[in-house]
Amino acid sequence: MKPATISEIQKELSLLSQKELLALCSRLLRFKKENKELVTYLLFDSIDQDGFVRKVNESVSSSFAEMNDSNVYLIKKSVRKILRVINKYIRFCGDTKMELEMRIHFCKELKQFKKELNSSQQLANIYNGQIDKIHKATSTLHEDLQGDFVQEISLLE
Question: Are 134 and 153 in contact (CB under 8 A)?
Answer without folding.
Answer: yes
